[in-house]
């Protein structure tokens, strides 16, 4: 029942100034330009380190669990992966499969078909923050990460935004379900809208009454409430296994990559 740092961040109350001038966001073209990453850039090293590739595969398949930081020897590898083409290609495959599935259902729009989107590293990308602060222990710095969240300028993960729009066009409703706390509802709404997510059926943030519960317990409980009120969760997409495990997970789940952090 380890409450992980990334989830605790959202209860943070202080706002500190931080610089984020290292990236340029182009919503229209769905491109994230990272101009000043603190790691090596480009894809050239991504395939080099077989040990780190095995580590990433272990993380994505949920064989390696309860880890807290990227192994020091793999920080450069993780940075290259995330800032290079592979992360985007992997995300695109996930989003594309999700769309093919949704489309194949030939749903009749009865107004109850719902798709769950997680927020961080799913709908929104905190990559500009990680590019500035590195992919290692700094991930755990609640002060600087919390300040970044409160700026409300995280760009969309472009592949997820495309999926979101296509699902809406199929008549599927979207609910955002996040470990972010209620205390940052406003900035989260603003951030979602600025990133291109302009409407939603529900935006479920974590009430402080859930403190102590794991993400799996919290998210299962919220999904159960949704199904109890008549929604049919036909799909569910997230970057953490805790978004996709537990109960009421939906007819199909889709796992986006995230070798940066783990939340149980
Ligand atoms: C590859 O990763 C291993 C740890 O898994 C590390 O010991 C080694 O230094 C790394 N090699 C390179 C070239 O980054
Ligand atoms: C959806 O419609 C297509 C085209 O009519 C059809 O080929 C497919 O079998 C249908 N899928 C389901 C799940 O009914
Ligand atoms: C965390 O970030 C804050 C704000 O950038 C900084 O002042 C502090 O030294 C950092 N703490 C650690 C342990 O790195
Ligand atoms: C959130 O926004 C609403 C109006 O949209 C405002 O009334 C409320 O005070 C805001 N809450 C916080 C915590 O900023
Ligand atoms: C989703 O799963 C439920 C329960 O197994 C089933 O009744 C329903 O037909 C499924 N819906 C779709 C769209 O596959
Ligand atoms: Mg997430």
TrEMBL record:
Q: Which domain of life is it from?
A: Eukaryota
Key words, A-Z:
Glycoprotein, Signal, Storage protein
Q: Do the record's keywords include Signal?
A: yes
Signal sequence, renumbered to the chain: 1-21
CDD domains membership: HAD_VSP
Classification via Pfam families? Acid_phosphat_B
Q: Which InterPro entries match?
A: Acid_phosphat_B-like, Acid_phosphatase_pln, APS1/VSP, HAD-like_sf, HAD_sf
GO MF terms held by the record: acid phosphatase activity; nutrient reservoir activity
Q: Does the keyword Nucleotidyltransferase apply?
A: no
UniProt similarity note: Belongs to the APS1/VSP family.
* Entry-linked PANTHER family: ACID PHOSPHATASE-LIKE PROTEIN, VEGETATIVE STORAGE PROTEIN 1-RELATED
Please explain the role this protein plays, according to its UniProt record: May function as somatic storage protein during early seedling development.
Q: What is this protein called?
A: Acid phosphatase
Lineage summary: Eukaryota, Viridiplantae, Streptophyta, Embryophyta, Tracheophyta
């Amino acid at each position: 029942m380890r409450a992980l740092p990334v989830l605790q961040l959202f209860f943070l109350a202080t706002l500190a100034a931080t610089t984020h001038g290292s990236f340029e966001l182009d919503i229209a073209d769905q491109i994230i330009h990272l101009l000043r990453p603190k790691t090596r850039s480009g894809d050239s090293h991504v395939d080099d380190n077989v040990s780190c590739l095995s580590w990433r595969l272990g993380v994505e398949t949920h064989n390696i669990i309860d880890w807290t930081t990227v192994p020091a020897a793999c920080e450069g590898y993780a940075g290259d992966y995330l800032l290079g083409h592979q992360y985007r290609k992997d995300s695109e495959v996930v989003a594309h499969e999700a769309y093919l599935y949704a489309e194949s259902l030939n749903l009749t729009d009865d107004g109850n078909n719902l798709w769950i989107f997680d927020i961080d590293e799913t709908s929104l990308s905190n990559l500009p923050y990680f590019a500035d602060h590195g992919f290692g222990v700094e991930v755990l710095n609640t002060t600087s990460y919390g300040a970044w969240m409160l700026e409300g300028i995280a760009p969309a993960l472009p592949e997820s935004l495309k999926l979101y729009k296509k699902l809406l066009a199929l008549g599927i409703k979207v609910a955002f379900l996040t470990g972010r706390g209620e205390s940052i509802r406003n900035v989260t709404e603003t951030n979602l809208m600025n990133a291109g997510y302009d409407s939603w059926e529900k935006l479920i943030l974590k009430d402080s009454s859930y403190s102590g519960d794991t993400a799996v317990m919290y998210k299962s409980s919220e999904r159960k409430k949704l199904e109890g009120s008549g929604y049919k969760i036909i799909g569910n997409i997230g970057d953490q296994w805790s978004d996709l495990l537990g109960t009421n997970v939906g007819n199909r789940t889709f796992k986006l990559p995230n070798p940066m952090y783990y939340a149980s």
